[in-house]
Amino acid sequence: MHPLILLNNKRQARSGMINCCIFAPIMKRLLRIYLLLLLFVAGLPAMRAQVPLNTMNPNGTMRDQYGNQIDPATQPDNLEDSTQTNIQSIPPKLYMWTLSETLGERTIIPADTANLDFQNTNLVEGMTGHYNYLGNLGAPRLSRIFRDRPAVMGDFFLSPYSSFYFGPEGQKFTNSNVPYTNLTYYKAGSRINGEDRFKSYFSVNANKRLAFGFQFDYLYGRGYYANQSTSHFNAGVFGSYIGEQYQMHLAYNHFYLKMNENGGITDDRYITRPEEMEDVGGNQYIPTLLDGTSNRNKNMQVYLTHRYRLGFRRETTKIEETQDPVARRRAERDSTEIPKDTFIVEEFVPVTSFIHTFKVERTQHRFRSNSEPEDISALYDNTYLQEGFSNDSTTALRMKNVLGVSLLEGFNKYAKAGLTAYVSHQFSRYTLMDMTPSERPRPQQYNEQEVYVGGELAKRQGTLLHYNVNGEIGLAGQAIGQFKVNGDVDLNFRLGKDTVNFRARGHVSNLLPSFYMRHYHSNHFAWDNDLKKEFRTGVEGELNIQRWGTNLRAGMENIKNYTYFNQQALPAQHAGNIQVLSASLNQDFKLGIFHLDNEVTWQKSSNSAVLPLPDLSLYHNFYLLAKLVKVLTVQLGAELNYFTSYHAPAYTPAIQQFHLQPEDDQVEIGGYPIVNAYINLHLKRTRIFVMMYHLNAGMGNRQAFLVPHYPINSRLLKIGISWNFYD
């Protein structure tokens, strides 16, 4: 290697060390201040929550005081010490839910207390390794499983950061009878090239109906290769009011994502054939294509959904476990069933809901390259504004209102389903760079209006059959000619001693590609396209047999005018039809304390030149699961990820997107297993894991890439710890 290159890389490394040394004390002080603030808020006596009247129905279904179903898995055990003496405090009970963005429908989800596979909760490649990514924590990613990819790129610059960024549908709300706090910390590597992530979530009820909280998420990946560090930040507040007639959810989130770009390493042989290359002194000194290049994304979102329900009151008979502490202790001591109390109560039965949802979102994107290579044509085909330096920026502002009216299911024996109708309006303003070189450039603005009408027919109550059909059609503005319809049905029936669940899904859509696929202006990429609407149809079936540990999915999707980034990293459309067939089998085996979880996915694209996909993806997790003592659960095992070779999408920093590989740089990715070994410990309210990531580094064919020319991290020790506090 040329001495100047080596000297430059060493200077970069020393600069990174200095930045880390300066940053670490500041970060520690911020975390101390934050923890003190968190403990202060959690201890406010005015925030002591009241006990919700959770009831257990005779069929074993846990519901809150308003009849909303609670997942029993989210009910923590009563807090008792080792001497079996009851702690004189309120036993903690909580449940969480998410919302559908359009109408704000609630979906109960398990609380984040699962002890299995905790080691994978911070992996950018996902829980079962489905994603290709650039190697560092918080880097852009793209799913290899086509059905998991979003159909349209609404959040164009943020969708590749799905391991960190989330929209309103990803916001978690909590109802609890005591303040609930979760603190989670992940750590890997050293202070020079390692990674850290700190997450916190706090929620408290002011009373049975009103709850609010805040969350904090900070990620810092220094990077094991030059010029690839990431620094992401999210802070948000949220609140909910769940009354009999009025219900409201409000959330505010602010994201700031920073990422340095290196364009990939200059020669893959530094990874695949290091004996053929000059020793540079470590991965952090391997030459990369770019230096002084970065992407910055800021996102602010405010989301409000509320509804007012009209109905009537009626008397009903309820059966509950007795709340008499003497009778309950006697039943526990004698190992008998807890006595039941029967009484008549008056309940509110909702009939009609009036719904309003409001969302405003502002996104800013900036790409800077302070020192571009002299031979810039090796990276970019065009330069429109200035040589040797790029400073690209764009801003998007979107405001959306939805008004709906809903006839609710279940208010009488003939109302077997709920029916909802709504109208939505979205105003969008996009600001792009002026492509005319001048001393005083004038940003160009594009305004778009979209008006849709939609409806939903849904049956969510009961145990045998559920279904949901929703759709919308455009009436004005950019929405004219656009429509989408989604439907799903699930059926539960007995098969011997098992309960079998069958689900069927289908969709039809005719949607215009996102704004930034049609318009974008920058130094090296510029387009104003007249793209056609993308027409998609798809069907899928799913079979679940819980006792056997079996999940089987199979489906087909047909796409006309498939929109993608071509080999020049420019938007393009395939005029014909592309079909994608897929099938997945999840099968778990258990023998005593030994477990083997398996996932096998097969998929086939009818046009691999336009839509390349791996034919086969495998995930296997072998572990033993046991309790060493009464309160300590141990999971010890190893997992393997593997997919067959294919021409995986490449990545271009200047547009922050994945695209087809260039004609003169075709490489295959895959055919290389990634093996991780780990141990998980779950002690009451604490979870801990230790993982040796990429245990097989340097073995086999050494093709340790998920994206062309972006190697994944070498063998790396990762640890994590998560605490739940119920006070």
What does this structure look like?
- This protein has 727 residues and is mostly beta strands.
- Helix content is 8%, strand content 51%.
- It contains four helices and 36 strands.
- The strands form seven sheets. It has a 22-stranded antiparallel beta barrel. A three-stranded antiparallel beta sheet has the order 1-2-3, with no helix packed on it.
- β10 and β11 form a beta hairpin.
- The longest helix is centred in the N-terminal third of the chain and has 40 residues.
- The chain is globular and about 80 Å long.
- The N terminus is likely disordered.
Which SSEs are present, and which pair or pack?
Elements (H helix, E strand, L loop, with lengths): L2 H40 L12 E2 L5 E2 L5 E2 L23 E6 L6 E4 L21 E3 L7 E3 L29 E4 L3 E9 L6 E11 L4 E12 L8 E13 L3 E16 L7 H4 L18 E31 L3 H10 L5 E32 L18 E18 L10 E15 L11 E16 L5 E13 L5 E13 L2 E14 L3 H4 E3 L4 E3 L5 E12 L4 E16 L5 E21 L2 E12 L10 E14 L2 E12 L6 E3 L4 E3 L14 E10 L2 E8 L11 E3 L2 E2 L4 E10 L2
Antiparallel strand pairs: 1-2, 2-3, 4-5, 4-8, 6-7, 9-10, 9-36, 10-11, 11-12, 12-13, 13-14, 14-15, 15-16, 16-17, 17-18, 18-19, 19-20, 20-21, 21-24, 22-23, 24-25, 25-26, 26-27, 27-28, 28-29, 29-32, 30-31, 32-33, 33-36, 34-35
